[in-house]
Structures are given as C-alpha cells and as structure tokens.
Predict the 3D structure of the following.
Amino acid sequence: MKILIIEDDQLVANIYRNKFALEGFQAETAPDGEVGLELVRSFRPDAVLLDLVLPRMTGLDVMRTIRADKDFEKVPIIVFSNTYLSQIVQDAWKAGATKCLSKGSSTPRQVIDAVRGALKMNGVVETKAPAQKPSGPAAKTHELGGQDDTDFQAQLRTDFLASLPAALVAMRTMLQGLTRAENDTTRLKHIQDLYRRTHSLSSNAGIAGAADIALMADALEALLKELQDKPNNINASTLRTVASAVDFMALLFEHSSLPDKQFPPAEVLVVDDEAISRRAVTFALEKAHMKSLSVEDPMKAVELLVQKKFDLIFLDVDMPNMSGFELCTKIRTLPQYAKTPVVFVTGLNDLENRANSTMSGGNDFIAKPFLFIELTVKALVHVFRSRIVAGKK
C-alpha cells in the first residue's frame, strides 16, 4: 500500500513517513501543495495524508484538484486541521475530505488507524510492502517503532521536550519583534513568522502526545491566523492576548515533563447585562470545550458564586445596580474565590479603567468588540495557569 504525506514541517513528515514504513506502507512525502500534486500523479498513492496549511498551494486547493481528477476522485484523503478553525474544517469536508483529524491531538497510531479504516471503507485490500528503513531526523525511532507503540511514543515525547527551550527562545524573539514593529508591514511579517512557528509547535506537540501544549498552541495558532488573514484585527487588545499566551508558554513548557492530567471541563461564570455579549462570550468558551453559565444580574451572580465553584469568571464593567469592578471586589471577599481568575470584558479600554480592573481584584481584561478566538486563548491561559499554580501547592 502506498501513502503520500503532504506536510511542510519536515520533522513531522519524517516521523509519519518512518512510522508508516514500519507498518508496511510505501511512504513518500511532499513539502508543499504543488509538489504534492505532482506526486499524486506520479506516485499514485492509495491514500493521502494532507495538512491543510501548506506553502505555495493550500491543502484545500490540493484536495479540490485531486477530486476533480477522475483517476483520484475516490482516493481516501485524511486531512489535518486546527479544531479552532471551524470554517476551514467545514470547507475541507465540502472539498471531499474522507476524514478530518485534529493535528494537535492525533498521535501517529491514531493517524495510521484512520488511514487503514478509510482504505477498508473504500474497498481497498491492504497489502504490506517490505518494511522500509526509516531515514531523516526521526530515524532513531526505527527500532522503537518496530517493537512497541508505547516506547515509540515515549521517545517522541522525549525528543519533543528536548526541543522546547529552543522553541521558547524563537517565540520570544518573534514576539519582541512584533511588539517593537514600527509599521503595519513589519508587524504583519512578525505575525506570520510567529504563526508558522506556533503551527509547527502544535503539530509536534500533537505527535508527541503533549496534550496541554498542543491545545494551547492550537488556539494561539488560530488567533495568529485570524490576525494574518485580517490585519485590521491587529490592535492593542489582540496583541496583548498574543503576548500573554507566549509568556504563558514558558510556564507550560516548564511543567511539560510531568504527565498531562485529565481535568473535567472548566466551569466558567459569565456576568453581562447584554444578551448578545453574553452569547458571544459563551460561544468562545464552547470552542475551548469549557462549560459556562451566564447571568445578567450581578446580584444573581453573587448567589451562584456562593452555591457553586467556578474556575474562571468573565465580567462586564458597565452594568446596572452594580458595576463589574464592585462585583469583583465582592467576589474577592469570598474565601473560595480569593485566587480565581477574573477577566473583565469591556468597551472601556482607557488607562483609568485598566487601573480600576487591577485595584478591584481583576486579573485581566479584553476589549469589546473581541474576536471569538481571542477570548478562547485568554480563557485557556487563565484556566491552565490556575491549574498549574494550584498543582504547586
């Protein structure tokens, strides 16, 4: 059986090529969409593993071109996507994807199983080729991959953890360039560089099974893509969110040697007197798989806080009867909420209100109107940080 892997991250491509080779597949890789299409026609694969984010030609365009060719209109195409980019995922299904996998949460074993399942459903009888000798940066996993998936995955995680210090230095350097950019053109270039670096981090974290890093990188990648595609959304609020996420990566990397813990979905309280604003916040939280409860009355919020423990709180500032600042001050008097992160969602973005948010006990704020993915990133940073800090005690 022949598998074509169209992936621009050479390390990721090599890992998958080597693992598929050890599973008896004849595997080839392509570093971009155009080369991928050439290999589809010359190599004639039985299945294609396709990243949607590629240079020179997008994965969507590659897939549409393949599906337009009668010779390949039924070949299984397993695509990698970012789960936060829901529109791209929908476009992938419409373009003819056989299966969509989250790049940030799929291990090599899961990908191989997905390919085999797609081949079987397509009526293809699998015939194994002689095992190929792996090559490239991942070749040292040859013996492990041939023996036991657990050992193979452990080696991938070890290699990934060893790469994190260099990744952090690169991301911080790119962030410094972004914050110091003197014009829109330079700022956009740094956004694009940071996006590509985060995309690579997300891919490698997924392969290594580093779920927390993959989840955080996935969300940051989606935010950076939004800013890259729509530069008008680059503003003080979105740049502050990007900076806080990169800064948090340092803490996440520091604890990456520990096994990922399975936590229940975070419980979030949203307090805002505007129904549309409440719905926008809860929608963004849903993208991060967080459970939210929203109320319009600050006094009702106080009752809920006494009855139930929340992991994160979003507050509007300008509300009748009690401002968000006053509510936050009251929240901090409740012993169980002394350290719970509180984020203000407000159109009041001046220096005085920033100071008031801190003085009342708030941890952060996000300016209206906000991007859904911006609030998602903000929520993940605060929930993860809170769990890490709590774990230290």
In short: The CA atoms of residues 19 and 128 lie 13 Å apart. Confidence is low (pLDDT under 50) at residues 136-147.
